[in-house]
Task: inverse folding
């Protein structure tokens, strides 16, 4: 009750169940509203963002009920946002920032972009663990070995374009370039198969894959000897398979004594040992290790729905199929077959996905290789909304295949793909294979609740489903009228551009989130972004802040960019850029504006110091109901006759982040 008199009417927060709670209030996201932090004896600081106002706050506990979904718990657990978000503060120190910043600052300039990406895209747990093991040199070793082998291999070169680097590679018709996102994610970055920080160095006997596997002669001939004369990147990928099959002797088999060996090093050393089980997963891990070491962009593809793993490699503008677990007698026929369909056509996957997570910016995605004939592919569009039809963003939509039940392989469906809804509530699942089953289950897990239902896809084509959750997106803005002034004293010109939109969610395999805090960034395309912009008379702004109906001069709803030209203002106004209809998405925006003669902008607090300067006057206001910063003309007065003399411009480089 000490923060605001109205708070005495709020009562208790029965859903906030935290042991030995130590609450505090602070504005965590710079929107001017107090958020709730709660310290706990379990070593975590829980936080609840204020979804209401400064006068009437709403500290929302998100009940996804993910743990109640039977299928969501079938594999590795639901792996969704916790009911209350938290920060682990058991290592509050600048030690690790100092270690990695020092590593970057001391690096040769040509390595900096790759090194910075590798560090930025790796998990916090991995960074801390390798630092504690005095093994941060591995980050540099990863990059220097790329440059080392690029000088020795005839089919690739590292090229520097100033602000980024990539590989140039040989094709049958000349040289081409690996797209930079593929270079950084699927050449530079390591995944959990190539580097499990928690198992370093014992699992690998202290060997780093790039500097070990190219030169090792355990099987007589080294990988380098096989690929060193390749004339194209494609030919190099073929020689990697030849080396694995003919020299290493890799083959799929159930061990007579032991189950599967852990980690690429043990798989490599035991690849042909009949006592150890080497299955499709081990074969795909070994191809990934070898191809990446040979500077071939490559990924692990997992078709969990039919329990099979294999690989794709990049060449000539597209991904190509390779199955390292193929029979030693048929592997050449199964190397990059049309549409990825192997000899005999028996294997057609439901939803083969890249799933090894090459860093935090690599949400699982469907392979570009069809793995089905055209008449066996369906496209699914699923929209998730609340009970009033408002879109729900960040809902995890999972497709589960019933092939395992129908074939007798197992007693329950297997997951095919998890994806998150965009800000319009949509998920698009292209190229769902229906050759092996037409029966599927859909599991939807969201911050507003969860549900599950079955679908039937009898033939190729497009299918659309709308999922209605029995809950509501909290506190949508209420507008009771929109009126442009009859006379005006100022004109507003403004452009808003989305720099990026993303959701940071726990990795969909709960065990990795529970043990190591792994999260993934789901980046949204421009078409999946929306926000609202209101131009509000200053006298109506208090109503907006208190979640009451308000009058606006202009309203721009559900836009993914904006260009306002000569909007008439009858007096002082507030421009509000709102992301309040989102429950999971963060937006980064660039704003450019020209205002005649003055206007108030609602901006995050940190921008006041960054852009306007510490001495910029503020509109007198209760700090509990929002931060309002005044952008004034040079004179601070209204000018109606010669407004050109008092223009104020906001540069395009100004950025804000909406949480």
Result:
């Amino acid at each position: 009750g000490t923060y605001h008199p109205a708070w005495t009417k709020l009562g208790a927060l029965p859903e906030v169940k935290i042991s030995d709670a130590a609450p505090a209030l602070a504005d965590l996201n710079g929107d001017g509203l107090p958020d709730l932090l709660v310290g706990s004896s379990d070593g975590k600081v829980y936080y609840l963002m204020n979804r209401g106002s400064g006068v009437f706050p709403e500290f929302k506990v998100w009940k996804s009920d993910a743990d109640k979904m039977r299928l969501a718990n079938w594999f590795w657990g639901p792996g969704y946002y916790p009911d209350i978000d938290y920060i682990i503060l058991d290592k509050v120190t600048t030690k690790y920032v100092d270690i990695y910043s020092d590593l970057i600052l001391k690096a040769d300039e040509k390595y900096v972009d790759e090194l910075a990406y590798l560090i930025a895209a790796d998990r916090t747990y991995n960074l801390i663990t390798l630092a504690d093991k005095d093994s941060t040199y591995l980050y540099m070793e990863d990059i220097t070995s790329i440059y080392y082998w690029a000088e020795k291999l005839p089919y690739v070169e590292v090229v520097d374009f100033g602000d980024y680097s990539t590989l140039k590679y040989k094709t049958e018709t000349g040289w081409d370039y690996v797209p930079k996102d593929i270079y950084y994610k699927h050449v530079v970055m390591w995944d959990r198969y190539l580097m499990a920080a928690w198992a370093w160095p014992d699992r690998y006997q202290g060997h780093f894959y790039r500097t070990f596997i190219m030169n090792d002669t355990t099987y007589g001939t080294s990988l380098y000897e096989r690929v060193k004369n390749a004339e194209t990147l494609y030919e190099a990928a073929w020689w990697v398979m030849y080396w694995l099959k003919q020299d290493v002797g890799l083959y799929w088999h159930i061990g007579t004594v032991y189950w599967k060996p852990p980690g690429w090093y043990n798989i490599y050393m035991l690849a042909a040992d009949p006592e150890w089980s080497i299955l499709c997963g081990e074969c795909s891990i070994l191809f990934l290790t070898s191809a990446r070491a040979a500077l071939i962009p490559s990924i692990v593809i997992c078709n969990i729905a039919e329990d099979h793993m294999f690989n794709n490699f990049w060449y000539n503008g597209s991904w190509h199929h390779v199955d390292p677990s193929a029979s030693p007698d048929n592997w050449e026929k199964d190397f990059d077959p049309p549409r990825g369909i192997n000899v005999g056509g028996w294997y057609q996957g439901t939803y083969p996905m890249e799933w090894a997570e090459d860093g935090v910016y690599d949400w699982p995605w469907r392979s570009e290789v069809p793995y089905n004939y055209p008449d066996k592919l369906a496209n699914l569009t699923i929209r998730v909304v609340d009970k009033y039809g408002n879109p729900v963003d960040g809902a995890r939509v999972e497709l589960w295949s019933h092939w395992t039940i129908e074939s007798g392989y197992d007693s329950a469906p297997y997951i095919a793909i998890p994806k998150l809804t965009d800000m319009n509530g949509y998920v698009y699942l292209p190229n769902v294979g229906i050759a092996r089953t037409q029966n599927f289950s859909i599991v939807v897990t969201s911050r507003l609740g969860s549900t599950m239902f079955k679908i039937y896809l009898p033939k190729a084509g497009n299918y659309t489903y709308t999922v209605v959750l029995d809950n509501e997106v909290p506190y949508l803005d209420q507008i009771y009228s929109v009126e442009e002034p009859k006379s005006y004293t100022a004109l507003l010109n403004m452009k808003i551009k989305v720099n990026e939109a993303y959701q940071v969610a726990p990795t969909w395999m709960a065990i990795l989130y529970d043990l190591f805090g792994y999260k993934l960034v789901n980046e949204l395309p421009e078409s999946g972004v929306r926000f609202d912009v209101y131009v509000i008379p200053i006298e109506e702004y208090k109503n907006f802040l208190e979640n009451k109906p308000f009058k606006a001069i202009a309203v721009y709803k559900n836009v993914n960019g904006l260009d306002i030209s000569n909007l008439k203002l009858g007096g002082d106004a507030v421009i509000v850029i709102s992301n309040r209809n989102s429950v999971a998405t963060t937006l980064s925006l660039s704003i450019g504006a020209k205002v005649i003669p003055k206007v108030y902008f609602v901006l995050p607090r940190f921008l006041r110091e960054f852009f306007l300067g510490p001495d910029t006057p503020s509109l007198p206001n209760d700090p509990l109901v929002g931060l309002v910063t005044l952008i004034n003309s040079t004179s601070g007065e209204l000018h109606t006759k010669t407004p050109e003399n008092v223009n104020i411009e906001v540069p395009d480089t100004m950025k804000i982040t909406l949480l």
The longest helix spans residues 137-152. Residues 255 and 276 are 4 Å apart (CA to CA).
